[in-house]
Amino acid sequence: MDANNSSSNPFSPETGHLPSGLRIRDVVLGMNDGMVTLTSFLGGLSGAPLSHTSILYSGLMTALAGSLSMGAGAFLAARSQNDLIRREVERERWEIANVPELERKEVYDLFISFGLPPEEATHVTDRIVADPKVWHRFMVREELGIHEENIESPAKSAALLAGSFLAGALPPLLPYFFLPRAYEAFTAALGLSLLTLAVTGSLKSRLAGEPPLKGAGEMVLLGGAAAAVGLFLGEILPRFFHLT
Description:
The chain is mainly alpha-helical. It has one domain. About 80% of the residues lie in helices and about 0% in strands. The protein has 9 helices and no strands. The protein is elongated, with a radius of gyration of 26 Å. It starts with a helix and ends with a helix. The relative contact order is 0.17.
């Protein structure tokens, strides 16, 4: 690539692609969920007539329970998705073996939809269906949209989401270990949570090649809004209905 072309390239220099096992979506989801859950929960408890130790203990139990719940949900979701993928892959193999003419027409129709002229579509179709393994791989990828990376390890997915939830729950909890007054601890927890959201959003944007401030602002606004709703439900609403 010459200098002129490289200078007009809107992307940063390629240093390698993201690892196939890196699930940025799950990390952001888990951290945001853990942070918002704990911030809202602690905000509701900080105004209650409870001891500092009780609030801290309740926060720790909530963090652990939320992490286990996220992990179990991720495990079951990944296993269910894998079962569905394997069933569709086997269905495609059966159809190639038992209704080959119908499957051959589907290959041809796919190439026509890609914009190939009928002659070229026929030629490429003949080349693909000549090898059953290539044929099956093509149908799985192009018709079903299934790739090898779609098959996740349920255990890894569970560990990633559970760990991300705990990582997100840690910043709101930290001030309660060091500040004796619940109100002071919660104020520090709220500030630390917003800072962590900003850092997480910034890192996410850097990985996506976007301006860091964009991701930081999105995470702070969305996460802060979710925490505010949680605080309203956990503290202000009970006071309004005289439940405290």
